[in-house]
């Protein structure tokens, strides 16, 4: 359901964490979403014994995946995966639509510590060079689509911009933010919590010719050949939209007192912003004893034997940390 933007946009009745709020700015031909993650991202990060910089990176990835997954029209699954040669070699966020999130990372603890030795680090120092892949499984037939883009010493935010420019060719602007917060619980003890948020705006005019692309080289350019790229000016509406989104400050995406409607009103009220029904987001892992048992039953005999230690098979979910113990004989009899 669409809602016009009257003064009600400033009402605290809209305040909510763990949701994606779709919006449209008809005056600029822009559509997008604002994601705010509170308890959900805190639960994901608190269950992992990750260093602070890795937690920030995982939170950024969770926001980015949520911004993109909530654009899907049908139920399905969206997977964001960054594989790199940096201190954090793998980040995976799995979103089952309409909004169940899980996330994990693989990293070299010593390399992360070294990267952070001189102070706060952005995601470019943790990722290094690698590939950003986005996989969509959607519809009753679970049709699979995958897009990917290489990146080199870029932040996750910059890598996402590269992806949309090269793979999707949709003018896109994204802002991601993560906050580590400290307060006290009911007993007065210090408590650390995490919050994260993001905004995505995309230029989607009815007239496709208004989207102008700068041609990108399709491969290696022969030595001595000079590229003469024609500089195309962006549409004025998109120039304005980008400039407005670029004014978003980190605290506007993570401060629980600043609701998404208030932020959108500040950015676009002169152009007539509309918001739509928000989509709930939650931490939820899809692992189960049955799912893992089904995987074990498909293993080859040598793989099965390698997985058996001291007469037991122990499986731990990398996303939520849940542990499942299996009796090998029971698994074999179930698969017979």
What's the structural blueprint in terms of helices and strands?
Blueprint: E1 19-25, E2 30-37, H1 39-46, H2 52-69, E3 76-84, E4 88-96, E5 100-107, H3 109-115, H4 123-127, E6 129-138, E7 143-152, H5 156-168, E8 172-184, E9 190-203, H6 236-245, H7 250-254, H8 260-268, E10 273-275, E11 279-280, E12 282-283, H9 289-297, H10 301-307, E13 308-309, E14 312-316, E15 323-326, H11 328-335
Description:
The protein has 336 residues and is α+β, with helices and mostly antiparallel strands. It has 2 domains: 7-207 and 235-283, Hsp33 domain (3-Layer(bab) Sandwich); 289-335, HSP33 redox switch-like (CBS domain Like). Helices cover 29% and strands 32% of the residues. It is built from 11 helices and 15 strands. The strands form 3 sheets. Strands 1, 2, 8, 9, 10 and 11 form a 6-stranded antiparallel sheet that branches. The chain is globular and about 70 Å long. It starts with 18 loop residues before the first strand and ends with a helix.
Structural class, by secondary structure, is alpha+beta
Q: Would you identify the CATH H-level superfamily of the largest domain?
A: Hsp33 domain
Order of helices and strands: EEHHEEEHHEEHEEHHHEEEHHEEEH
Q: What number of structural domains do the residues give? A: 2
CATH class call of the largest domain: Alpha Beta
Distance between the termini: 52 Å
Shape: globular
Number of strands: 15
- Proper CATH architecture of the largest domain: 3-Layer(bab) Sandwich
What does the average pLDDT come to? 86
Fraction of residues in β-strands: 25-35%
How large is the radius of gyration?
A: 22 Å
Count of alpha and pi helical runs: 11
The CATH topology label of the largest domain is Hsp33 domain
Helix fraction, binned, reads 25-40%
Largest sheet: 6 strands, antiparallel
Low-confidence sequence ranges: 1-14, 214-221
């Amino acid at each position: 359901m669409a809602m016009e933007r009257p003064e009600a946009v400033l009402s605290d009745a809209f305040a909510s964490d763990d949701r994606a709020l779709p919006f449209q700015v008809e005056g600029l031909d822009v559509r997008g979403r604002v994601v705010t993650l509170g308890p959900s991202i805190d639960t994901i990060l608190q269950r992992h014994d990750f260093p602070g910089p890795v937690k920030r990176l995982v939170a950024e990835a969770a926001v980015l995946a949520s911004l993109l997954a909530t654009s899907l029209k049908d139920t399905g699954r969206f997977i964001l995966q960054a594989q790199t040669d940096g201190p954090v070699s793998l980040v995976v966020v799995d979103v089952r639509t309409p909004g169940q999130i899980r996330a994990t990372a693989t990293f070299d603890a010593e390399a992360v510590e070294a990267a952070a030795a001189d102070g706060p680090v952005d995601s470019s120092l943790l990722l290094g060079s690698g590939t950003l892949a986005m996989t969509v499984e959607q519809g009753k037939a679970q049709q699979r689509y995958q897009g990917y883009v290489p990146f080199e010493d870029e932040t996750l935010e910059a890598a996402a911009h590269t992806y949309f420019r090269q793979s999707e060719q949709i003018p896109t602007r994204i802002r991601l933010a993560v906050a580590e917060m400290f307060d006290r619980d009911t007993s007065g003890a210090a408590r650390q919590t995490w919050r994260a948020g993001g905004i995505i705006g995309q230029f989607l005019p009815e007239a496709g010719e208004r989207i102008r692309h700068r041609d990108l080289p399709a491969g290696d350019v022969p030595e001595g050949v000079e590229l003469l790229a024609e500089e195309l000016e962006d549409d004025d509406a998109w120039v304005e939209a980008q400039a407005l989104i670029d004014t978003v400050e980190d605290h506007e995406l993570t401060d629980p007192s600043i609701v998404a409607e208030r932020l959108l009103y500040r950015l676009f009220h002169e152009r007539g912003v509309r918001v739509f029904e928000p989509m709930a987001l939650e931490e939820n892992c899809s692992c189960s004893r049955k799912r893992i048992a089904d995987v074990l039953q498909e293993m080859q005999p040598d793989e099965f034997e390698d997985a058996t230690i001291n007469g037991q098979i122990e499986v731990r979910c990398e996303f939520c940390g849940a542990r499942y113990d299996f009796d090998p004989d029971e698994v074999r009899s179930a698969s017979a």
